[in-house]
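Box S1 | Example of a co-folding query
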Amino acid sequence: MAHDDRTNSQKSIVAIYPGSFDPFTNGHLDLVQRSSRLVDRLIIGILRNEQKEALFSVDERLEMVREVIQTIPNAEVATFDGLLVDFASRSGASVIIRGIRAISDYEYELQMALMNRRLRPDVETVFLLAGEAHSFISSRLVKEVIRLGGNISGLVPPSVEGRLRKRVLGENR
Ligand code: PNS
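Box S1 (continued) | Returned holo structure for 4'-phosphopantetheine
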C-alpha cells in the first residue's frame, strides 16, 4: 500500500518504469527506489528491441536488473515489445514512470508522454527528477567511459560494473 490509511475499496497503484537499461545504472536505481515508495507495485519494463544494437542481450539485462532490485520488495522486472501503453494495460498499470535529468530530456519525454496519452488516456505518465548525484549518468556515457578506459565505479551498481568489465574489458572476475 502506498498509503497506510487507504481503505480496501481503493485500488492499488501499479506502475511501469520502462527503458532499454543497456546497462542499468545508478541513475535508474535511484528512480526505482524513489518510485517504489510511491506505488504499490513497480514493474521495470525492458524493451525487447532487437533492431537496436545493444551491449547486453535482453535476457542479460533482465538478469542484471533482477540482481540489483532484490532488496526492493515491491519491484519486479519484465520485458515487453510492441506499444508501451499496451504493455501497461496488460499489466494492470495505470502509471508510467520516467526520469528527467536535465532540460534536454524534456522534449523527447514530452513527445512520448503526449503520444502515449493519445493512445491510452487512462495511463498517466509521471516524471520524477533524478537525484542531483545521478543527473549526469546515462547508459550511453557509461559504455563510452569504460570502453575508453575510464573509471565507472559509482555510476552503476557493483554487479553491473562486474558485467561491464567482463563484456567490454574481457576481465574474468
Ligand atoms: O530508456 P529509453 O531507451 O529512452 O526508453 C525508451 C522507451 C522504451 C520508453 C520507448 O522507446 C518506448 O516506450 N518504446 C516502446 C514502443 C512505443 O510504445 N512507442 C511509442 C511511444 S511514444
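The longest strand covers residues 41-47. The mean pLDDT is 93.
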